[in-house]
Amino acid sequence: MARTPSQPKLKHELGLLDGTMLVAGSMIGSGIFIVGADITRNVGSAGWLIAVWLITGFMTITAAVSYGELSAMFPKAGGQYVYLKESYNKLIAFLYGWSFFAVIQTGTIAAVGVAFSKFTAYIIPAVSEDNILFGTMIGSWHFTISAAQCVSIVVILLLTFINTKGVQSGKLIQNTFTITKLLSLFGLIIFGLLAIKGDIWHANWTNAWDMHNLNKDGSIVPGGLGMAAALGAIAAAMVGSIFSSDSWNNVTFIAGEMHNPKRNVGLSLFLGTLIVTVIYVLANVMYTGVLSLHDIATADKDRVAVAASHVIFGNAGTYVIAIMIMISTFGCNNGLIMAGARVYYTMAKDGLFFKKTGTLNKYSVPEFGLWIQAIVASILCMSGKYGDLLDMISFVVVIFYVLTIIGIYKLRITRPDAERPYKAFGYPVLPAIYILMGIAFCVLLFIYKRTYTEYGLIIVLLGVPIYYITKYFSKDEDTHEVPA
To answer: Per the omega criterion (within 30 degrees of 0), is the bond before 428 cis?
Structure first.
């Protein structure tokens, strides 16, 4: 009788440095170079611009060190999906996995891809978003495909192909591009701080805490902001900063391929989020030293870093920053693509995703999951709407972060004797603060930027019937289990 060949297994080929570079590299895409303009238009002052980044940084690091407890308890591929399944049930976990596939990960990949193409156009004008290759009317909707969208899709497909050749291929790109962009960003910050203009700094920081909205032309919106409006302005401003600080949890998805995951996943989360938070705050301090608030708020196509780089480096600054962002977004998307497919792999193992997604190719990576992720991200690239994707993703992702951290409290009660090699820092106070801040952010965003947050919520809820349909057709042994 012929022996059945053994199935490929996930390989433990990633260490602490690789995990930290995955966290930092997945977080730093294009947001830090762009979203400062929208934040400034919402809050209208240097103090609140920096405060928004500090609040976001605090939330991100708090969430990351809280996840350390869960990553040590469940050091498996799939990360947050596994944490939600263990804390609640398969339905909640599936809703996350479905949202992850439909908008969170794929939408982030698309948004970063669109940003890559926008800045590539500085060096190669022919790939500009203004170069329309195809256009047609679909009812009252004018559908177009630009050269920039095509570039975005090509980059996503290229990185997907590279990652199908094994985790070592993706690791090499990730470490190389992340180290390069960290050094580049620190260089930009240092040169920018040396180029600070006293008059601009003084003007920006004289009334640093007077909050008001700014129009796209930089003029102040008439009427002051009451308490409710101010909170709404902060929530709206944090859409960009939270998106820019998101994807730190990607290292948890790939825990099944890390050496000593009980230790290294948690440490990677802390080190990566700390490095990025420091960079983000310093970069925005630098912006307020070389650009007036008016120039930040009215930067051409929100490209604040380009405007700042032009002041620092002269005419060459445009090309300096364009190359930096191309490096940054290319490396960022590599990390997102590499880690994302591991969630679909774990879902398939639970009978909650396409069965083929639960298999590994000869290089021990979930190739089918990588390709279907690429297809959805490419479709989202067609929207070309960076801001719309930000609103939708930020709302949905924070909902699941809050649920996951609540799960820490739940597991402390339901599994008090479970092994916890690492415990959430500052428990129970810091995780509780994150939960309150996260809920406040989601509520305020739903009130003040409802259109796309509603779309995000609808996508999540669509997962409920899809879950039961999937369970019905699944051969999973828990097919008839009704979630608690």
So the answer is: yes
